[in-house]
Amino acid sequence: MKNIIFFGDSLTAGYALPAADSFPARIQEKLDAAGLPYRALNYGVSGETSAGGRQRLATVLARQAPAVFVLALGANDGLRGIPVRDTVANLRYILAEVRRQFPEAQLVLAGLQVPFDLGPLGVPGLSRYAQEFNALFGALAASEGVAFIPSLLAGVLGRPDLNLPDRIHPNAAGQRVLAHNVWAVLAPLLPVAV
Question: Rounded to the nearest 10 degrees, how much is the dihedral formed by the CA atoms of 136, 142, 143, 145?
Fold first, then answer.
């Protein structure tokens, strides 16, 4: 049995939901249905920033050897306005460290967007920060040569029916959409790794 590590924040953890409703658990259902010998391991921690993930990485990699490593961090960086260069440096470090320790592992990066304008009030469109943040994931995936989920929250962001009342965290139905977004990129990688 090979491991798929989902390394993220509350979006991965399935904030305020039963563990079985998180998107990694939904991915496990898809793996089982396809008869693929993988375990989906949920290493999502609510509130985690890319810096926190960088600090936590060694403990996770010491515990589990990934055949596939899905990196889904950065949302809390965006919500806190952490400089984009810091987020990029942390995510690049995480990818490089997984690659160093497990050179055969497939690496996947999930793209995220700042869900609101952090710019001055009254200025239409996205702030410069939001534009830079939203672009960092695709650029990093391209420069690192890793598989890319263009938007983890595609189809969920801004949809009240798919989010908890806080309008930030997906509900159980929203987590199913996240699983669909991830599976679209993940599934083609798996036969190669079996």
Answer: 130
